């Protein structure tokens, strides 16, 4: 038997004919183990992935329709959560982490951040009425200075979820070396390594199954928030040049995706407003990326299991900047890891149960012929296979690298 | 042997009576109080684990009811909103009794209310606010 080569067109023809073989990334592990990459590539056409976790770099573009008299909205609030109005007249962007204007924040630590942008997005998708207020300085063409109205997602002429950084390819495992509990975007971390929190779906995670972004690019059709959406660019902080394992999987946070989709088609189950104690508001986003098995290499990539994926254990208390060790996702999922000879309980922030549900929904969509693969029209920055280690950055990009001002 | 986590609510008329002492002395029960509070209108609320042999336990609970104490299981006071819970596992970091725990390898997050000590730490630790505690909302007894 010769080498396997499949095109997007061939796979889409199979999907249209209801003959495509689709498996989840979890199922692919066993198939590759049992049959090898060659046979797996021949048999399987598409592998579906999934992830469901708080993704802070998320938000929605909204146009709320012209008012009478018209307004060039400068300051806008949705359920008292400020949105950005520095766009055309009635366009706005609402970010997931924006708290309500009167939120007490961390004045009494840890703040609870009960309601923010992510919650507004969830309420909109749930069909709930949302109070919209806008203020303007007034112009000859837009004389109105103030509007207040109640809107639902149905009423809005336009609402597009547009998330500049989602689906991080791998992420740190967070611990706290200090003597007090700290409250981070990685959850509450108990003192002296009381717990180790992690947040990817491991073997089900989209970019851990496509380590060099070979099939994930501009135009890749995906599951986004319960509907069909698209990958539109690489995300902010996308950094392919991190140290990798022999299987190509980055050992630390690397690639990211910018994704986009019609909010009106999405479901509240897959866009949940979240409150991270002491940190802020966010939005838990459900994403699933289908990976076409074009050849044997893609079968090998999608065959990775939690044993084959590692991440770095990082201190989030600014006590130590170097990683404390490297652990596999199999160890993380087992419930405890060893760090410096000590057993530390592991805590997931990413829902494996929901990630699996997404991978299965996407599988059903493709099998039923209602979801065709989008062929990337542009590819994202990547590195060569087997790039020498010295060309790779040791730097682990996290949302903060420098200690905060005292 | 029977052990149950209970929420007891006392009206202002009986809040100063030695009721728990009577459970020990007359019904041969042991207890472990996890939370006790007296509200501004003098009603009281106690969360305790009550332990003893089956007959004694039921007689003790009957005694409580007879003198006007409202007895609830902890499951009536602490619930999980299954729509909101998306099964991440963040709560398992802080749950001191393991009432919230992960079933492996499926990674389902389970809540066993029988093991809950009503510390309420999970309420604010849950990102989607799926844990519902109704202690304070149910204090009105008159």
The averaged pLDDT of chain A comes out at: 95
| β-strand amount of chain B | 25-35%
State the CATH topology of the largest domain in chain B.
Answer: Alpha-Beta Plaits
CA-based shape of chain B: globular
Q: Any idea what the CATH architecture of the largest domain in chain B is?
A: 2-Layer Sandwich
How many domains would you count in the coordinates of chain A? 1
The gross shape of chain A turns out to be: globular
Number of strands of chain B: 8
Radius of gyration of chain B: 17 Å
Number of helices of chain A: 6
Instruction: Write out the strand line-up for the largest beta sheet of chain B, numbering strands in chain order.
Output: 2-3-1-4
- How many helical elements of chain B? 4
Description:
- The complex is a heterodimer of chains A (406) and B (142).
- Chain A has 406 residues and is of the alpha+beta class.
- Chain A has one domain.
- Helices cover 16% and strands 29% of the residues of chain A.
- Chain A has helices at 8-16, 25-43, 117-125, 296-302, 329-334, 352-367; strands at 22-24, 46-48, 51-54, 59-63, 75-78, 81-84, 91-95, 130-135, 146-151, 158-166, 173-175, 182-184, 187-189, 196-198, 221-224, 227-234, 257-262, 271-276, 280-288, 290-292, 310-315, 325-328, 336-339, 342-348.
- In chain A, the strands form 6 sheets. In chain A, strands 3, 4, 7, 10, 15, 16, 17, 18 and 19 form a 9-stranded antiparallel sheet that branches. Chain A has a 4-stranded antiparallel sheet with strand order 6-5-8-9.
- In chain A, strand 5 and strand 6 (81-84) form a beta hairpin.
- In chain A, helix 2 packs antiparallel against helix 4.
- The longest helix of chain A has 19 residues, at 25-43.
- The radius of gyration of chain A is 22 Å and the shape is globular.
- Chain B is α+β, with helices and mostly antiparallel strands and 142 residues long.
- Chain B folds into 2 domains: 2-73, Alpha-Beta Plaits (2-Layer Sandwich); 79-131, Alpha-Beta Plaits (2-Layer Sandwich).
- Chain B contains 4 helices and 8 strands, in the order E-H-E-E-H-E-H-E-E-E-H-E.
- Chain B has helices at residues 19-27, 54-66, 74-77, 121-125; strands spanning 2-10, 30-38, 44-52, 70-73, 78-80, 100-103, 108-111, 131-133.
- A 4-stranded antiparallel sheet of chain B has the order 2-3-1-4.
- In chain B, helix 1 (19-27) packs antiparallel against helix 2 (54-66).
- The model of chain B has no long low-confidence stretch (mean pLDDT 90).
- Chains A and B meet through strand 3, strand 13, strand 18, strand 24 and helix 6 of A and loops of B.
């Amino acid at each position: 038997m010769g080498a396997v080569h499949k095109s997007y067109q061939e796979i889409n023809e199979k999907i249209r004919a209801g003959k495509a073989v689709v498996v989840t990334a979890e199922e692919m592990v066993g198939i590759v183990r049992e049959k090898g990459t060659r046979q797996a590539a021949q048999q399987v056409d598409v592998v579906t992935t999934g992830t469901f976790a708080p993704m802070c770099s998320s938000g929605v573009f909204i146009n709320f329709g012209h008012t009478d008299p018209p307004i060039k909205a400068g300051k806008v609030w949705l359920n008292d959560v400020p949105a950005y109005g520095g766009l055309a007249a009635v366009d706005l962007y609402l970010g997931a982490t924006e708290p309500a204007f009167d939120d007490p924040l961390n004045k009494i630590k840890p703040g609870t951040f009960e309601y923010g942008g992510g919650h507004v997005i969830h309420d909109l998708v749930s069909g709930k009425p949302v109070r919209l207020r806008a203020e303007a300085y007034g112009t000859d063409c837009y004389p109105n200075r103030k509007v207040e109205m109640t809107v639902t997602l149905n009423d809005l002429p336009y609402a597009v979820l547009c998330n500049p950084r989602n689906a991080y390819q791998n992420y740190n495992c967070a611990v706290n070396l200090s003597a007090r509990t700290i409250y981070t975007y990685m959850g509450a971390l108990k003192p002296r390594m009381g717990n180790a929190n992690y947040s990817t779906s491991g073997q089900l995670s989209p970019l851990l199954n496509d380590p060099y972004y070979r099939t994930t690019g501009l135009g890749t059709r995906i599951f986004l928030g319960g509907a069909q959406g698209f990958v539109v660019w690489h995300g902010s902080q996308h950094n392919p040049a991190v140290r990798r394992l022999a299987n190509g999987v980055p050992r630390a946070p690397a690639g990211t995706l910018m994704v986009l989709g019609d909010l009106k088609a999405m479901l509240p189950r897959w866009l949940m407003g979240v409150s991270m104690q002491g940190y802020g508001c966010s939005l838990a986003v459900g994403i699933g990326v289908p990976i076409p098995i074009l050849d044997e290499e893609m079968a090998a990539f999608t065959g990775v299991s939690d044993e084959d994926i590692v991440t770095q254990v990082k201190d989030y208390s600014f006590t130590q900047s170097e990683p404390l060790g490297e652990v596999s996702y199999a160890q993380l999922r087992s419930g405890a890891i060893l760090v410096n000879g000590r057993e530390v309980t592991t805590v997931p922030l990413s829902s494996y149960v929901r990630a699996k549900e997404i991978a299965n929904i996407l599988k059903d969509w493709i099998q039923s012929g209602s979801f065709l693969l989008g062929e990337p029209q542009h590819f994202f920055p990547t590195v060569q296979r087997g790039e020498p280690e010295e060309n790779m950055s040791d730097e682990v990009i996290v949302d903060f690298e420098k200690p905060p001002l005292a | 042997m029977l052990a149950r986590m209970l929420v007891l609510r006392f009206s202002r008329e009986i809040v100063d009576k030695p009721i728990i002492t009577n459970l020990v002395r007359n019904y041969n029960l042991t207890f472990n109080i996890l939370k006790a509070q007296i509200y501004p209108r003098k009603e009281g609320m106690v969360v305790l684990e009550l332990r003893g042999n089956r007959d004694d336990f039921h007689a003790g609970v009957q005694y409580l009811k007879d003198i006007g104490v409202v007895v609830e299981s902890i499951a009536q006071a602490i619930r999980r909103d299954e729509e909101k819970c998306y099964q991440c596992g963040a709560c398992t970091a802080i749950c001191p009794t393991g009432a919230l725990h992960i079933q492996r390898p499926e990674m389902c997050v389970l809540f066993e209310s029988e093991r809950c000590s009503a510390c309420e730490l999970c309420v604010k630790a849950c990102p989607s606010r799926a844990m519902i505690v109704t202690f304070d909302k149910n204090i009105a007894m008159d």
